[in-house]
Amino acid sequence: MAITLYNTLTRGKEAFEPLDPARIRMYVCGPTVYDYAHIGNARPVIVFDVLFRLLRHVYGSEHVTYVRNVTDVDDKINARAAQDYPDLKLNEAIRKVTEKTEAQFRDDMHALGALDPTVEPRATEHIGEMRTMIDRLVANGCAYVAENHVLFHVASMPEYGKLSGRSLDEMIAGARVEVAPYKQDPMDFVLWKPSKPGEPSWPSPGGIEMPGRPGWHIECSAMSAAHLGDVFDIHGGGIDLVFPHHENEIAQSRCAHGTQVMANVWMHNGFLQVEGQKMSKSLGNFITVHDLLTGWHRYAWPGEALRLNMLRTHYRQPLDWTAAGLDEAHKTLWDWYGDVENSALAPDAPSAVLEALSDDLNTPKVITELHKLHRAGHFEELRAALALLGFSGERARIERVPQGDSTGSADTGEVDVLIAARSAARQAKDFKEADRIRAQLEAMGIVLQDAKDPKTGELTTTWEVAR
Ligand SMILES: [Zn+2]
C-alpha cells in the first residue's frame, strides 16, 4: 500500500519512496532530560510512534530504523542539577538528574503505548562525532572560530531558510537574534562554545585550547549521521523546531557531507494547547504526562486514553487538550474493549483503516473507521486495527482510578466533564444517558439548572452544590 506524507520541505503531500526499502530510516528530535515530559512533548512521541508502526507494518519490522536522541547536555540540566543536588559535584549531580529523568520519560512513554525507538543515542556519547563534523565545517569554510566559539556561517549556505520558507531578512527581523560580538553575521549560530568552570567540558575542535561543549543543533546532525547515514528518509519533530533547530541541522549536515538534502521528508506535528489556552506554568495549566497518569481531574488516567485523545486530532492540526475530550476518549475505548477483549484477532487491520493511516496519518478518519467496525459488530477486525495503532484492547489496562486529592481544580473539573457529557448526550437525543449523568451528579451533591439563552436559544446548564 502506498504511503503519502506531507513534506514541510516541499509543502505538499508526496508518495513516500524509501531510499532503500530494506532499511527505512527515521530520525525524531527527542527530549532534553531535566524534568517530567509535558503533554506537548508526548505529542510527537505518539505521532511518530504511529508512523513507526505503519512503516513496520508495510516494510517489515526488521526493515525500519527509528532513532530518537536524548539531549543530556544543556543549560537547563545544569541548572536543575545544581538546584536539586547542591551538595554533589556538578557532573555527579547532572548524571543523577539525567538518569532519573530518562527513566521517567521511558516509563511515561511506555504507558502511552509507544514502542521504544530502535536507537536512543545520548549526546554525551557522540561528542567525538560532533567534533569531527565541526572540524570539517571549519575546514571547508562553512564555520569559523571566534573567541573560543565555533560558529556556523549562514551566508555559506545559499539555501538556508528553505525549510521554514523564510528569507534571511525575514528571519533576522522575526527572530530575537542574540548579536554576540564574536559573530560575523547576526544569523550565525553556535556549533561549540566554552564551558563555564565546573560545567561538563570536552576537548574542543577548531584548534581551540580551552575545553568546551557542543551547541544543541549539532548533536542531531552528528547523531543522525552516525546511526542513519548522511542522507535518510524521514526527519520529524514538533512544528516549533522548524526554525531555527531544523533549519540549522540541515545547514550543518548538508555542508559537512556535501549533499542536496539531509532527509527526504520533513514532518512536523502541530502545537498543543489546553482548554483553548496556551499551556504555561504561569497560567497554571501546565500538564505533565505523569500528572495525567497519576491524578488529573479526579482520576489517574490510563495512558491509552491519552493516546486516543491525541490521535483524535490530525497531527498537523493544532490540538486542544481538554478534560472533556479525555473523558470521551476513555469512554470510547471502554466501549470498544468491552466487545473486543473476548473476540479473536483478525489476521490484519481492515484496508479502510490502513488506507486512512497511509494518507498522511489521517487518524481522525481512522477513528471514524473504528467506530464503523464497532457499530457493525466486526470485533475481530476492530481488535486488529487497535493492535496496529498501539492499543491493547483489554479493559483491565484502561481502568481509570479515582483520585480524591488530585492536582488541578479537581471537583470543578469533574463536574464540567460530566455536564459536557450530559449536554452531548442531550444533543444526540440520548436522554437516558443524560438522566443517568444527572443522577450521578446528584449523588455527588451537585444540582443542575438548565436554561435557555433568551438571545441565542442555546441551552445552557449551570450548577451549584446542594445544601
Ligand atoms: Zn534535533
Q: What structural class results from the helix and strand content?
A: alpha/beta
In terms of per-residue confidence, which ranges show pLDDT below 50 for 5 or more consecutive residues? 405-410
How many β-strand stretches?
17
User: How far apart are the first and last residues' alpha carbons, in Å?
Assistant: 62 Å
The number of helical runs is 15
Q: Report the major sheet.
A: 4 strands, parallel
What is the helical fraction, as a range of percent? 40-55%
Output the strand order for the largest sheet. Answer: 4-3-9-10
The average pLDDT value, as a whole number, equals: 92
Radius of gyration: 25 Å
Q: Beta fraction of the residues?
A: 15-25%
Query: Which cofactors or ions or other ligands sit in this model?
Result: zinc ion
Taken from the alpha-carbon principal axes, the silhouette is: globular
Report on the structure:
This protein has 467 residues and is an alpha/beta fold. It is built from 15 helices and 17 strands. The protein has helices at 39-59, 75-84, 90-111, 127-139, 168-174, 216-228, 242-257, 289-294, 303-311, 323-340, 351-358, 363-375, 379-388, 410-427, 431-443, and strands at 4-7, 12-15, 24-28, 64-68, 143-146, 149-152, 189-194, 212-214, 232-238, 263-269, 272-274, 277-278, 299-300, 319-321, 401-402, 446-452, 459-465. The strands form six sheets. It has a four-stranded parallel beta sheet, with helices on both faces. Helix 1 (39-59) links the parallel strand 3 and strand 4 (64-68). Helix 6 crosses helix 7. The chain is globular. It starts with a strand and ends with a strand. The model is unreliable at 405-410 (pLDDT under 50). The structure holds zinc ion. Residues 29, 220, 245, 249 line the site of zinc ion (ZN). The site of zinc ion (ZN) has 4 residues, from helix 7.
